[in-house]
């Protein structure tokens, strides 16, 4: 019988578990503390549970922590970790140190259904949703976990396509019984699935980043097929119903592709689309992937695009490119590992 993983269970779920096992109600908080504060790897380490209750718990449960199976290190300090998910599946988490900040980019799915033209994960197709435990394990089992200041859900997969498990993971990250982080330390990135987007905004206080990449609907459909079902104009209209003027941040991600979405027309249409919305744009340099005929812009071209947007009232930054020598763009390492397994 496969044992139930404790890692990734919310306090309510732990309460239900201890009730079903006839353990005292306060055991749920004790277990949560061992999992998320002390980060133990084994039930035997939960020493304030009686021996009887530890043995009872071990009959049906395990902590469920799993260390990375591979890692690639960049000259700039970025580290990409590979985690195995079930039989033959892998996801990536990327650790990005930057002076007094350290960010972890985590995955929410094995592969992705969105099939964005510029994304290696999309080329894999979709294999599985991660459980909350598998999402949290990317943090829990990270060698540098005690250095983390921020988490971004920008790894493999579309988080809002796995919303229930993602929301549980976000609860564990931000709840007092879990990691107890401020929601402002967590950012979720999405193509803009409307139903999930509304729930995410109303049920969390985490930051939101929307993948935009073109303000022109027909072109965005070519880059991001999800535009057919979730148009960026409808996403922006929905976002106008919420207040992002205080601590919660709304940003739009925009990869600049040379000769594709970097013209003055695109800049003007971006200003028009986002006018009056309290937000920022993050310009991102393209990391080339095999078989895709897109090229990145030069630093000068990105700077000119940024300056136009900023001068027209849209606060815009250029995100520093990290880990290019280890293919830090998501999907590269996991794809290589799956292909290796298939050959063997």
Would you give an account of this structure?
The chain has 344 residues and is α/β, with parallel strands linked by helices. The protein is 34% helix and 20% strand. The protein has a ten-stranded mixed sheet, sandwiched between helices. The longest helix has 13 residues, at 299-311.
Report on the biggest sheet. 10 strands, mixed
Strand order of the largest sheet: 3-4-5-6-9-10-11-12-13-14
CA-atom Rg in angstroms:
21 Å
Give the overall average pLDDT.
Answer: 93
Give the strand tally: 14
List the total number of helices. 12
Structural class by SSE content: alpha/beta
> What is the 3D form?
elongated
Q: Order of helices and strands, N to C?
A: EHHHEEEEEEHEHEHEHEHHEHEHEH
Please report the distance between the alpha carbons of the first and last residues: 29 Å
The percentage helix is 25-40%
Low-confidence stretches are none
Beta-strand percentage?
A: 15-25%
Could you give a short description of this structure?
With 344 residues, the protein is an alpha/beta fold. 34% of the residues lie in helices and 20% in strands.
């Amino acid at each position: 019988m496969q044992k139930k993983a404790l890692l990734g269970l919310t306090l309510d779920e732990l309460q239900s578990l201890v009730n079903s096992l006839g353990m005292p109600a306060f055991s749920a908080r004790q277990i949560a503390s061992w999992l998320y504060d002390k980060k133990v790897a084994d039930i035997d380490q939960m020493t304030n549970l009686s021996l009887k209750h530890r043995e009872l718990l071990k009959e049906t449960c395990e902590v469920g922590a799993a260390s990375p199976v591979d890692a690639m290190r960049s000259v700039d300090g970025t580290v990409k970790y590979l985690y195995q998910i079930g039989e033959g599946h892998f996801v990536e988490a990327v650790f990005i140190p930057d002076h007094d900040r350290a960010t972890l980019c985590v995955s929410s799915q094995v592969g992705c259904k969105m099939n964005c033209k510029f994304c290696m994960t999309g080329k894999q197709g979709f294999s599985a949703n991660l459980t909350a435990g598998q999402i949290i394990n990317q943090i829990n089992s990270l060698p540098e976990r005690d250095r983390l200041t921020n988490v971004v859900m920008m790894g493999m997969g579309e988080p809002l396509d796995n919303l229930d498990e993602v929301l549980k993971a976000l609860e564990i990250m931000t709840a007092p019984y879990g990691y107890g982080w401020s929601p402002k330390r967590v950012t979720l990135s999405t193509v803009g699935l409307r139903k999930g987007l509304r729930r995410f905004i109303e049920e969390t206080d985490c930051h939101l980043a929307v993948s935009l990449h073109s303000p022109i609907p027909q072109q965005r459909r070519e880059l991001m097929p999800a535009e057919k079902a979730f148009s960026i104009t409808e996403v922006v209209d929905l976002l106008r119903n919420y207040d992002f003027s205080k601590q919660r941040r709304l940003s739009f991600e925009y990869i600049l592709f040379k000769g594709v979405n970097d013209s003055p027309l695109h800049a003007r249409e971006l200003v028009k689309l986002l006018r009056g919305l309290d937000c920022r744009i993050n310009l991102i340099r393209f990391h080339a992937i095999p078989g895709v005929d897109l090229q990145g812009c030069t630093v000068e071209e990105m700077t000119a695009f940024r300056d136009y947007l900023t001068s027209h009232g849209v606060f815009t930054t250029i995100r520093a490119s990290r880990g290019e020598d280890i293919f830090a763009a998501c999907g590269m390492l996991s794809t290589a590992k799956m292909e290796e397994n298939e050959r063997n």
